[in-house]
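Q: Got a minute? One more chain.
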Amino acid sequence: MPAVFPGTTTATTTVSAVVAVALAAGLLTGAATTASATTTASPVTARETATAREAVTTPVRIHDIQGTTRTSPLAGQPVAGVQGIVTGVRTYGSKGFWFQDPRPDADPATSEGVFVFTSSTPTVAVGDAVNVSGTVTEYVPGGLASGNQSLTQITKPDVTVTSSGNALPAPVTLSEGSVPSRYAPAGDPAAGGSVNGLRLAPTRYALDRYESLEGMNVRVGTSRVVGATDAHAELWVTVKPHENANRRGGTVYGSYTAQNTGRVQIQSLVPLAEQPFPKADVGDVLTGGAEGPLDFNQYGGYTLTARTLGTVSDRGPRPGTTRGQRAGELAVATYNVENLDPGDPREKFDALAGAVVRNLASPDIVALEEIQDDNGPKDDGTVSAEETLRKFTAAIVAAGGPAYEWRGIDPVNDADGGEPGGNIRQVFLFNPARVSFTERAGGDATTATDVVRDRGRAALTLSPGRVAPSDPAWTDSRKPLAGEFTFRGRTVFLIANHFASKGGDEAITSHHQPPTRSSEIRRHAQARTVNTFVKKLLSVQRNADVLVMGDINDFEFSGTTDALTAGRVLYPAVESLPRAERYSYVYQGNSQVLDQILTSPSIKDFTYDSVHINAEFADQNSDHDPQVIRFRP
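A: Always. Here it is, folded:
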């Protein structure tokens, strides 16, 4: 039935013309409008005061509140009698409801929906026609320092329900043809690179398209999952099934300008206690899609908060495997095992160990990242990881794998970042039946290994040893671990890394375009120290076999990789794969490279595999996929 509203005017009211008078009358404490208020206005008359008060309290439409930019022209101002139909109610987290004007204007840049923050459980229901008064605010999820866009909302609301059971405004369907392929406009240099003040162009840019629908009822049809269900009951789909697709069902992030505009995050408005959220892996299909208000949140940006949610059809691939190495091949892997410590359940150890044996085919050497100390996050000064490694290598033997030995260096307590108290570090596992480790004693947390010439060939002064541990690039970060191995009479140098994380970077949905990637400074400096060390090795022995590997925390096309490879001393082996297969991690629906193995020029003939066993799946033993390289030294 049609919505029933009280008999108030439906005309759009513009308050900017009287803002100066309203300010002078003390009705507004801070205006975010296009009006230019001056302090030299003529004395305020009673008639002008009444006019200002009427302008502030006269009903406005939702599209007047949303405006044509990312921030409301009425931010900070009170509004009264805003009419619409409730399209979604959130009873957990940031409590409130969305409502939408069923009579849209003709401007595609203006949204017709908005969120009402109630702070307590809302008393309205979907389908209610409501009148809302309150204050227009711009809420920045994550705070101003995050760089996130803001969410326009009405706060401190006074809500009147005028009728119930009304039909909802028809949803706007997000589809391949409705979302532009260009991601975002360039930010305004005069505004520090922000796009907040730019008029939305929803037919040109994907972020503008989503912003023009903020708070509105939207839907996606049956869609492919590109980000597995996570611990927060969220998943990602794509409305552009052909956009940078890979054969396993994901969508690949292959450059800073290939953000994959069809990705949409989906949550449920129904509390988990009432309806479990579907478990989905990358490549599965959300049959029936989803419908609900389009929100903006700290973790993922534009998010469809679903009133109705389809079912998951199992279409995704199974965990991957790689072939075993041949007799003359050396197989080397890198694997981030995500804060492994003895307190983890036996199931995690068994699953990780089984992956090493069955999915990675028991490589000759495995460089591990995120091995924690013997009591995990308990911060009592413990730095040894002997118990962690004993438990892990025993699990590998139990799974049918080799009896790996290990080499590593305990860090200074609380000096290498990561989970507080955990003292994560890199460790080499190696199969002594096929590989020998060249022991050069004296390595510790603070002493740097170096390169010397030994009988005409390069050698490390300390093995295992740390690369430039006192360099400021490694402050509160994991120091590189170097080791010297021998395989069939040939020396191979390995440098295991875990570069600084991307923490502090702005999201790709940031109001700065391009976003600020402040964490790169650390990784670039770290990459330069490793590059310098490799150059020293190659200056002593030009044909030395060197592998640089680990959780680089950056893309194959990044400045970090450029710094690692400067002077062509290293080659990112992941680039030997087809572009659609280059990924080791899935973040917000983007399949991307974070884990890498880089080779020195002497390693020309190799096979490389990114073994997809974690990142694409809701059930994970780590959030990273291991990488494997095989070659003949």
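A: The longest strand covers residues 78-90.
Q: Perfect, thanks.
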